Amino acid sequence: MAKWLMTLGGAALAMLALRDVFHTLWHPTRHGGLSRRVMTVAWVLSARFGRRRAVGLAGPIGMVVVVALWAATVITGWALLYWPHMPDAFSFAAGLEPERHTGFLDALYISIVTMATLGLGDIAPAEGWLRIIGPLESVVGFALLTATVSWVLGIYPALARRRTVALRIAQLRRAGLHDQRPPTPGACAALQGLAADLAHVCVDFRQYAESYYFHDGDENTSLAANIVYIASVADRIPPDADADTVLARDLLRASLRDLAVTLDERFLHTGGTTRHVLARYAEDHWGTTKS
Predict the structure, then answer these.
(1) Strand locations in the chain, DSSP E?
(2) Which band of pLDDT confidence, cut at 50, 70 and 90, is reported for residue 201?
(3) Which of 114, 147, 180 marks a domain boundary?
(4) Do 80 and 107 touch, CB atoms closer than 8 A?
(5) Which has the closest alpha carbon to 137: 104, 109, 115, 112?
(6) Given this model, what pLDDT does residue 231 score?
């Protein structure tokens, strides 16, 4: 009975890790708890150092730790699945004494070799159902590697889009957008384009929530350092402006509101207004707000 309880426990542990991978990469929800907690801890710890370089490393280090935990959990789960059935359910290469390979470290070795698809063959499953479970771990290992690559290839373009939007806002600020009363037709078109770009950023935060824990670098490429400014631009457009200007203002406000809702629901949990949430986001990433 104890043997099968350990087997079920190992299977449950492996499924727990795979569930987190699924909800982090392919079905982003709040159920991807492991990755979210690790990234949050990395962010908080880096912020306590009070140095920009440490904060900049929080995201990459957090991703490395998350992937390592996924792999370690799956490997441990499969090792617990193998362990109770050693050595009777396994075949051993010539020269190996089965009775000397019954410990957890031996099961862990088999699990690592199988997941890494090394195929050494010195210890291999021999019992029917284990001969299916073993290759299945290799498939999971390959899928985890593929998922990790796709995660990296998804997050970094999202970061690039966010930093591009921040740079665009910084450019509009340096061009004197704030001083145009009312904004010129060209400025209105720029605000409408910016509203569309902010909508993309909002989707990125939902699809790749871990991207929140990446620092954006210098002031010009930091959305947090510029977000309050662009919100103030929208608020200064008078209600009696022409129709195109009002449309640009309303679109920008809607994008900012959607972004604030996403940030508050998933990361900040302030329950405040759009301006309050955006200011809190600026403080969390940049330590100050700019308007």
Answers:
(1) 90-92, 123-125
(2) very high
(3) 147
(4) yes
(5) 115
(6) 92
| CB-based burial, 107-119: b 16+ in 10 Å, e otherwise | bbbbbbbbbbeee
Q: For residues 203 and 259, give the distance between their C-alpha atoms in angstroms, rounded to a whole number.
A: 9
At residue 68, the pLDDT reads 93
Task: Quickly count helices (H) and strands (E) in the chain.
Answer: 9, 2
* Tokens standing for residue 229: 């400014």
Q: How many domains does the chain have?
A: 2
Residue 269, helix vs strand vs coil: coil
Half-sphere exposure of 179 (CA within 13 A, CB side): 4
User: pLDDT at position 31, please?
Assistant: 52
pLDDT for 89 beyond 60: yes
Structure tokens at 46: 């880096």
Of 147, 165, 190, the position where a domain reaches its end is: 147
Close Cβ partners of 54 (under 8 Å, ≥ 6 residues apart) = 46, 47
pTM, two decimals, is: 0.82
- Render pLDDT for 245-283 as a digit per residue (tens, 0 to 9): 889 899 999 999 999 999 999 999 999 999 999 999 999
- The end-to-end CA distance of the chain, in Å, is 66
- Residue 161 and residue 63 share a domain: no
Question: Which residue is listed with tokens 């959305």?
Answer: 223
